Amino acid sequence: MKFDETYNFMTEGEDEANFLEFRKQLKNLFGNIALIDPELVLHTIEKLVLSTLADLESAHFAQVEVGMRLFYILGEVIVDKGNHFGGPNAVDSPWYKIMVAIVTSQLFAHKHIALCQVYFELVVRYDRIFAVEQELIPIVLNAFFSQFGLKHSQSHVRSRCCYHFSRFIKSVRSYIGDITEHLLFQMKDLLSFECLDSGYYSNTDQNFLYESVGYIIVNSRKSAEEKCHMMKTLLGCLVERFKLLLPQLHVQEQAIEVHVACSQKISDVLSHASRISKVFPNHQTTLQSGCLPCFVEVLPIFLQGLEVLVQREVVHAGVRQFLHRMIICLGDELLRYIPVAVQLLLKDSSSHDIQEFIPLINQLITKYKHRISPFLTEVFMPVVESIMKHLNTPFDPNDKEALQDHTSLQRCYYLFLISMATNGVYDVFESQR
């Protein structure tokens, strides 16, 4: 399973793909052996990992990597039922000894990127140890914030670190409430739009980082008012960028390249705001955190994106995504903004626009049921008329794309009616007589 000297980690080609496929076969073989005698395999891996870590500077990277990879795979074979790092004798278990040795080592700072990556993969896979040994958490955080983690010189390593960092923060969020200010200070530069505009981080990378910051804020030991202030500051940066970019999409004389770039940046802003809100699984958690007013405040600002004159599809998609999240987070606070949002979403809508809009209205119906009936009574016929206008538009039956679009729109219409019937808003049907 060891990598040889010819393996190209920077540009993986056919030979590398063949080797990885061969590795998968060996992984299955290793898994079968581990099932036969898990204790023997575990102690063998323990000796291999501890011996290579003890001689990390002089050991060949391939020898170190294969030990770490086998330990990683072992977690898939021997399923953790809460016993690996729990119980009175946890500190004597091989699992515990291996993870403590890995976390406290300089594996993350190894010059070979394969070992940098496997370090972060392991701390995320075996994150239950941090519930037992919380003093290890700062060590891992320092590794993430170092030049070998989120600031690594290789973009693909940075990207994987952003993903692993979000998972790590989510798993240890209950234990980091006392170091909120330190974490926010460390992440301040990582969230800058210079990082995104320069390509240092991709939009997906920053989504992971924004979500992480959301967890850090919500799980801090601060009061609800202080959490609200921190969240407002975080969202305020996004709002300022949104306000700066939006006017450019109201100037039709701009070059199309400018419009495309601007709309993508606006979409990124909305994506970040949506990702922050993922830390709230429901309206009650948003309310308890004290952060509900922050999202209520930014919602009407982001809804202005529905009035753009160009690049509507890109911007509308971002606003719809944010609205989907606000249905979950804001509860009844959202209802007063729905009429204007739906009116703007339906204005000059294409068939594709309506197909993207129907899941949003269905989510509203499912969430609010009879409470949304007065509003739904007003928009029901405009929605139906918009759908029928496109369904009644002639098209070439031999045009597969047009046929698929027609079929998809028809399906959306039926789903809209089914959603209303399923959630008992029959009074809307009756009012149309």
Number of distinct beta strands = 0
Instruction: Measure the end-to-end span.
Output: 71 Å
- State the helicity in percent bands: 55-70%
Run of helices and strands: HHHHHHHHHHHHHHHHHHHHH
Rg is: 26 Å
SS summary, helix count: 21
Average of the residue pLDDT scores: 91
What would you call the structural class?
mainly alpha
Extract low-pLDDT stretches: none
How is the main sheet built? Answer: none
How large is the share of residues in beta strands?
under 5%
Shape estimate: elongated
Fold and architecture overview:
The chain has 21 helices and no strands. It has 433 residues and is mostly helical. It is elongated and about 80 Å long. The protein starts with 13 loop residues before the first helix and ends with a helix.
What are the SSEs and their pairings?
Layout: H1 14-36, H2 38-54, H3 61-77, H4 94-103, H5 113-125, H6 129-132, H7 137-144, H8 155-172, H9 180-187, H10 193-197, H11 203-218, H12 224-245, H13 256-277, H14 283-289, H15 292-303, H16 312-330, H17 338-346, H18 351-368, H19 373-391, H20 400-422, H21 426-430
Helix pairs in contact: 1-2, 1-3, 2-3, 2-4, 3-5, 5-8, 8-11, 9-11, 11-13, 12-13, 12-15, 13-16, 14-16, 15-16, 16-18, 17-19, 18-20, 19-20
